[in-house]
Structure formats: C-alpha cells, structure tokens
Write a structure and sequence with these properties.
Blueprint: H1 11-43, H2 49-64, E1 71-73, H3 79-110, H4 122-144, H5 153-158, H6 160-168, H7 177-198, H8 208-222, H9 245-248, H10 254-279, H11 289-306, E2 312-314, H12 315-323, H13 330-345, H14 347-350, H15 355-370, H16 374-379, H17 383-398, H18 401-419, E3 424-429, E4 436-444, H19 449-457, E5 464-475, H20 477-492, E6 496-498, H21 501-506, H22 509-512, H23 527-534
Parallel strand pairs: 4-5, 5-6
Antiparallel strand pairs: 1-2, 3-4
Length: about 550
C-alpha cells in the first residue's frame, strides 16, 4: 500500500484538475464562438471557415503546442491580410498561400529561429497592433450598419461621415435598416461594457462578448428587425476547398511565395509575442518557441490544404483560458471539441445571430487593439519610439500590413545603428608635461569608423600618445584593424603610440565568446547524435 502513494497525484487532486480543464475549455469555447464568426464576416471568407480554423487550432495545434496554455485559432490581426489576399488572388490561390505560409513556419522552426521573432521593437509591435485595430475599427463600422466597407483603410476613414449620416437621417418617415443595424451594434457594445463593469461576481466567468451577442440576438428576434443575419451552412465541412493539381502550379509563382512569406512572418510574430504574454500570466511551464512555431506551421498547412483561413496564437482567448483556471493543454484541445460538437449539431442556431452584433464585437476589439495609451509608455524611452510607433501604424493604414511592419522594422534597425554611433574620441594634451592622450569611450563599430579615423588623423605625426580605453565598452574587428594600421604608420613616421592591445582585444566579441565544441553544437539536426552514430562500436 505504501507504493500507491508514489503512483501519481491523489485521485481528489486529479478530479480537481479535470474539473478545472473542463470549465476553462468551455469558457474559451464561449469566447471563441462569437469572435470566430465575426472575423469570418470581416475577412470576406466563406461562412464556417473560421470555425474550422478554430477547431484545427484546438484539436491539432493544442496537442502539439509549445505554449500549452495558449489557444490558437482565427485572429483579428490577420483579418486585414486575409481580406486583401482573397480579393486580390481569389479563394483558389489564397489556399495555396496559406499552405505555403504553414510550410515556411515549419522550416523556420526546424532552423531554430523561433526566438528571433521576439526580436522586434516594442514600438513596431504596438504600432502594428494599433494599425490593425484602426483598420478593423473603421472597416467594420460600415458592416455594423449593414453597409459595405470600401477598398482601403483610408477610404473607410474618409467615408465615416457618410456612414454616420446613414444612421441618423431617416429615409422619409421610415427607419432604414442602417439605423436599426446601428442600434443593434451599439446595444452589443453597451452590453459588453456594462457586463464587464457590473457583472455579478458569481457570473463573471461568463464572457461579456457572449452576453452582448445573445442580448442583441434576442432583441432582433423579439422585434423582428429586418437586418442582415449571418449565413452558416448546415454542413460546415463543405467549407473545405482542397487544392487541385492545377492550383498547385501556383506554388512556383514568385508573387504567391512573397505573399506567403509575409503571411508567415506576421502570423509568427503575433503568435510568439502572444506566447510571451501568456507566460507572464501564469507560473506553469514556459513556452518552447520553436515547438510553438512548428505547431502553428502544421496548423496553417492543414488550413491551407482545406482552403480555410489561417491561424495564430490569440491572446484574448489565451488570457481567458488562464483566468478560467487552465493548467494543461487539455483545455485548448477540449475547446476545439466543443466547437466541433456545436457546429456539427446546432449550426442553425448561428443563423439567428445578426451580422451587426458580430461586427460590433470586432469594432470593440479594434478599439481595444488601438490602445493609444501606450504612447505615454513609449515616450519614456525616447521620442524616436513614438515616431516609429506612429509611422508603423500610419503606413499600415495607408499601404498594407506587411509594408508597414517591414518599414517599421527598418526604422527600428536604423535607430539601433544610429544609437551605436556613440563612440566618443577626444584628444587631450597635459599642460605641464605636454603628453597626449586619446580617450575612447562608448562603442566602436564599423559605423563609427569615420569618427575614429578623424580622431587618429588629427594626432601630430611625431607625437607620443597614450590611447585610453578605460571607458570603451566594445570594439569590433574593423576598428581594431584601423587602430593597428594607424599605429604602424604613426610609429614608422617617428611617433609612438601606447595601446593596451590585450585589454583592447578583450573588448571584441570574437575574443569574449567561449570556444564552441562542434560535436555538442545543436544544428537543426543534432550533430552530436549524428557523430555518435558514426563512432565504431567499442
């Protein structure tokens, strides 16, 4: 009997965990359902596409995920990209783009580059989220009033006054559907805000988004409002559009490949930044970034094969998962099971939901994504961070998501290069002895070569000079070569230069880094294992 104590946690503890996972998975299901449907409409995709993406995100990615508590599925952040891809390339080529994007993510995971997607300036990330939020906000306002969005973010912004007039100016003496749809949308948002602020303590686990959609749906049915409703197929599995041999020929199209790389990059950044945020919400297992990237690649490959919409890790659903008490990946997997059972058995229920209500959820989501309050935090780190944030957001609205993000990353890199140009080189002469001292401080890289070259060229030809490096933090190979070349020329001309070369070389990265054992160095395929297999048996 004594051995039974070591056979695992007590039965009561296991039951408690099972209850926790069941409850949290159901909460995530309730959060995911209205968001999935709203994003489907906003993306211009076939009805049910986003539900199937969420099911794959739960059943497949949830099982493989490197971040066990992260919930994957359709994300508002990809809505803009998806809409552009479908309208530019059509549904057939779109599926190939998603398929390629998933494969690219798998390759990136195999190359162990998962951590590098975290190396994005916070100003760029905040600007990306704000730009996405603004595009969703202004685009879905038009859909929320049963109107149609325009072709670009700028056009949607400029047409907002006209949309507003449609909701306040009646057509003769009869209220227009625009007005009624607008009221249903506003009712949804108001219900979400009120439930979030004043929900009874015992009912706070019920998502505010679900309450908002249920309230709006009930009012629409009660008053028989003549507004648009979503159309969900009786057989949701009909949304799958598997690639044909003709469509596979697009794999060699450079334009398709470029779009796939952009989609893979944005989806990976959003997923892995979300995983980092999830790690801050709990004290359980930390994220394995390459495994998470691999699982997302598998999920998007399946989405591409089925012709449904792509996925990312989603912070809204993941946060709800953690807050509901999830401890293992079982919650994310089970939420996919509930979605599958719901759309398989009760698809007709979804047809009762007014489009205006779902789009109001996205309008509210877009507003939350904008979060202009982050400007205050960015300003603490310098005005340049605010400019990078604003330019990234503005370019996303004026051009497209990928262009805005890439230019934002370029601006952040340019700022990094500029800030590393902080080498200070001052030549001092002591009045009593006449000795010259060249003081180097900061960071000396190839970017600083002009400044360093100017400093040493100003030293008199026959002078004796001491090079002080006590305040120098780093020097690269280019600057070392310049100093060595200058010392040789200076001393050949009759002068003398005193440089502590051992200490100076010690400031170089190549000198500081430890020697690597090639056999133990982990390539995408562990080289040490390969070498062990080739050793002769003892």
């Amino acid at each position: 009997m004594a051995l039974a104590a070591s056979d695992g946690p007590p039965a009561s503890s296991r039951v408690s965990v099972y209850k926790s996972e069941l409850f949290s998975s159901f909460v995530v299901f309730l959060v995911a359902l209205p968001l999935c449907m709203g994003i489907t409409v906003a993306s211009g995709a076939p009805p049910g596409s986003r539900i199937m993406t969420a099911i794959i995100g739960g059943l497949v990615v949830g099982w493989l995920a490197g971040c066990p508590l992260q919930v994957s599925g359709p994300a508002a952040g990809l809505t803009v990209i998806v809409w552009e891809l479908i309208h530019t390339h059509g549904v057939e080529k779109y599926g190939i783009i998603v398929l390629l994007a998933g494969f690219i993510q798998i390759v990136w995971a195999w190359l162990h580059v998962g951590h590098w997607f975290r190396a994005v300036s916070p100003a760029v990330v905040r600007g990306m989220l704000a730009g996405i939020g603004l595009l969703i906000f202004v685009g879905q306002i038009h859909v929320m009033i049963d109107d149609v969005p325009h072709g670009s973010g700028l056009a949607n912004i400029l047409s907002l006054p006209n949309a507003f007039m449609k909701t306040v100016v009646p057509d003769g003496s009869i209220a227009t559907p625009h007005q009624e749809a607008a009221w249903i949308g506003l009712l949804t948002i108001a219900t979400i805000l009120l439930w979030t602020a004043y929900a009874p303590k015992l009912l706070r686990a019920v998502p505010a988004v679900l309450i908002g959609v249920l309230t709006a749906t009930g009012v629409t049915i009660l008053f028989e409002l003549p507004i648009s409703h979503i159309t969900f197929p009786d057989n949701p599995f009909k949304v799958f559009h598997f690639p044909t041999l003709d469509s596979m020929a697009h794999l060699l199209d450079p334009t398709i490949l470029t779009e796939a790389v952009g989609l893979a990059f944005i989806a990976s950044v959003e997923t892995l930044l979300s995983a980092t945020a999830v790690d801050q919400l709990h004290t359980g297992p930390r994220t394995k970034y390459n495994r998470e990237l691999f699982s997302q690649g598998v999920g998007n490959t399946l989405c591409g094969l089925g012709g449904v919409l792509p996925m990312t890790g989603v912070i809204v659903r993941s946060a709800a998962n953690v807050q509901a008490g999830a401890k293992t990946r079982a919650s994310a997997i089970l939420h996919g099971v509930w979605l599958l059972l719901f759309v398989g058995a009760l698809p007709f229920v979804l047809n009762l939901i007014p489009t205006a209500s779902l789009e109001a959820v996205l309008v509210y989501t877009g507003y939350k994504l904008m979060n202009f309050g982050v400007v205050r935090d960015l300003r603490r780190h310098g005005q340049s961070e605010v400019w990078i944030y604003a330019l990234t957001m503005g370019l996303i609205v004026l051009t497209n998501l990928l262009t805005g993000v890439m230019i934002g990353v370029g601006l952040a890199a340019a700022k990094l290069i500029y800030t590393t140009q902080n080498l200070e080189a001052h030549l001092h002469r002591e009045q009593e002895t006449g000795h010259l001292t060249l003081q180097l401080a900061g960071i000396a890289t190839f970017v600083s070569l002009p400044r360093l070259a100017t400093a040493v060229e100003n030293i008199p030809p026959h002078a004796e000079v001491q090079v002080s490096i006590t305040s120098l933090r780093h020097i690269d190979h280019a600057c070392l070569d310049l100093l060595q070349s200058w010392q040789n020329m200076h001393e050949a001309g009759g002068g003398r230069a005193h440089i502590e070369w051992d200490k100076l070389r010690g400031l170089s990265y190549q000198t500081r880094k430890p020697d690597r054992n090639l056999a133990a160095y982990q390539w995408p395929y562990p080289l040490s294992i390969w070498m062990d297999k080739r050793k002769p048996a003892a």
